[in-house]
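Recall that a protein's primary structure is simply its ordered list of amino acids. Everything else, from secondary elements to tertiary packing, is in principle encoded there. The following example makes that idea concrete.
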Amino acid sequence: MELLDMKYKKFVDIEVAAQILGVSTKTARRYVDKYGLRSNGYKMINEGDLNDLKDNLRVCKDNDLGKLVKNLFILEKEGLTIDELVSACRYMGKERMGRALNAIKFYADYYRTPFFDRFGLNPENLFLPSEVLARLKIRDFHIIRNLAEEDSIALEVVNTRGRTWNYIYKESFFKYLDFKGVKARIIFTSREISRLTGIPVNRIDKIALSKEIGVKLRGTHKNSIYLFTIEDLRSIREHDRKA
């Protein structure tokens, strides 16, 4: 505990703070208020807070880690505790999981809020498209639009200055996940299962199709993407062993 406390006992001046963050002193001062850094009137900034902020910004801006943070953020909203997230995500790699878990609160409190504040929307009631894409392990927004057209989820659409902004209503998305049987559960794609088990993707898809394992993102769509739970992963591995 003493070692952890020592991390947050050292304070540095604004010039050093700017160097740590890789920004100007003006931006460093702005970050003090924006990200709630502990300081003494902007003159001395808590070094532990600075290093945490630096890593959290890197994590949230990183393509892969950023998606993982968004996935975990929604899972936490679905009711999973941090301990449950750690247990459920043990397949994802200890180092990257640790950094992503550490960044969840920062992402929730600071990183995502400007996307809602600009339109006066309540971030507690809505998800960003990128968050839903990360949770469903997909890349294309048109799938979200298709789900909305099928009334599987509900969108809040904001049109301003010739641009359209889409948000997904939280409760509608939760109902969709619950209907699919994957709410508050880690899900995997065929490629992820292949990396974890060594089973080729085409073999996984063949087993899933023949044994009716996994869930379709769009139940009535012939070429819909399949997603799998931990139990599905174990079942696929067992069927592959028996083959």
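Residues 62-180 form one domain. The chain has 14 helices and seven strands.
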